[in-house]
Amino acid sequence: MTLDLAPFKALIKNGCGLVFETSNEANLVRVLHERLGALNLSPRLYLDHLRASDQEFRELVNRLTINETFFFREPEQLRFLVERIVPRLLSRRLRLAPVRILSVGCSSGEEIYSLVMALNEHHGEGIGARFTFAGCDIDGTILAKARRGCYSDFSFRGVERHWRERFFTSQDKSHCLHERIKQAVTFHEFNVVTDPIPTRFKGIDILLFRNVSIYFDPATRLEVLRRIASMLNEEGVLIVAASETLANDLGVLRLVEEEGLFYFINAARSEEAPSPVPLVASPPLFPIVEPHPTIGRDPAISFPLPVVDSPSLDAALQAARSDVSDGRFDQARRLVDEKRHDEARTRLDELLASDPGHVGASLLRAYLLIERREFAQAESVARMALASNPDSIDALLLLGVAAKWQKKSHEAIAWFKQAVYRAHHCWPAHYHLAELHRFGHEFERARHGYRVVLQLLSEGGGETGLNYLPPGLPLAEVRFLSAHQLEKMRAVGSSSGVMATHGP
Ligand SMILES: C[S@@+](CC[C@H](N)C(=O)[O-])C[C@H]1O[C@@H](n2cnc3c(N)ncnc32)[C@H](O)[C@@H]1O
């Protein structure tokens, strides 16, 4: 049965913000077929039913949401919250009102519980009086899991054992949170795009909104940011995932950078820097992050190209495969496009167990490792692939992205330059380069990069030079952000002269 997806897409976008493009459309088609089959309705009747029934709409959305999460995700952000932001908020309190913390798009609760555990380590058992914690999500099914508070090993990937041993009771392969941590959090069903904002979500001091806005288009994101601003206290803080920072810098909240990390403040766009807080005496809870290096300020500094080791090549990787269309690989790749990373990882592990020489599967697995910030392993796979094929754009891009995430900006620039040297049309590499140049205040280079990206995207953007990996950046988003950054730089240039030396 052929489905006209357009009216479904419009209904879903208006109802909850989720946007479906070519890359994740297959998921929508699969779920729609499931619901049509279960209710035995034609697409037209199902559309009517969806419009009339809030319950069915929620049912559909529950199946479409991507609930990927784990404990202590982006630990440097959490450390920063616990050691910097929270003490600042506590020191400003005139009365003994608790600091109010809300996770929007909390999924199964790992994010907000991580914060409860970390604050418990820092402030002891007294956190109940000093903080309130809440999580909300559109997906009622996943909230039930959050309330249960029991997790598999998979939720603890990359987490020090200490946390599990201290705050969980383990039986078989299930780890259940201690009651007192669980009791600290309340969970609520809430659609951040359309639901009226209840009083309990007003006057928030710290709002976590991580890995949710990636599924929205820029117009929805802007609207949601305005709603979030109305939920925050004055000087309240919004935390988004590091990769979402720029996409949320839409002029609603003030973007602040401190210690190489970004967050937003609900404040007038004054230039006043946040008052520094003395270092907390106790040892850091999380590994200290490397400060963001300042790149490109001195044109005399040129960074040598990263050296590719010539390791004893995994014989399997050497045998470059030609059957890219291998059914199992394609299936895994589709799962990645749909952001169903756990399932993709399982498929790739199966595929590599039976066919360890599948270069595409190794690289795609490395791509997933980078998403999980497991850089060392990912880099070693990419280097091996590169040693076997020095023109591998997939490997060069992976190495660039890994370096960028680890804030090794010079190294990242060198990898991306190699990628665009070999494949000029590789717009993801041009975009990363433009971003890195902008962070390094190399505005002319940044402008040039954004223009190249827009030019390549205006030609379709289908060609990237990548054989196995997705571009890693949504095309519409990159187009929007490139135009937005060019516009912003133009405005800064004309008002402050920052850009004046760089010419048009
Ligand atoms: C990828 S998870 C992010 C979980 C967690 N914040 C993290 O960063 O690990 C995204 C969550 O956003 C939720 N979500 C999507 N659209 C939403 C909406 N309109 N309102 C509230 N939650 C939404 C999904 O149900 C999903 O659980």
Question: What is the overall number of helices?
Answer: 21
Provide the low-confidence segments as ranges.
Answer: 269-325, 494-504
Into which percent range does the helicity of residues fall? 40-55%
Radius of gyration in whole Å, from Cα?
23 Å
Average of per-residue pLDDT values: 83
Q: Ends: how far apart?
A: 53 Å
The spatial strand order of the largest sheet comes to: 6-2-1-7-8-10-9
Annotated CATH architecture of the largest domain: 3-Layer(aba) Sandwich
Number of strands: 10
Which quaternary structure do these chains form?
Answer: single chain
What would CATH call the class of the largest domain? Alpha Beta
Protein name: Chemotaxis protein methyltransferase CheR
Keywords: Methyltransferase, S-adenosyl-L-methionine, Transferase
EC number: 2.1.1.-
GO molecular function: methyltransferase activity
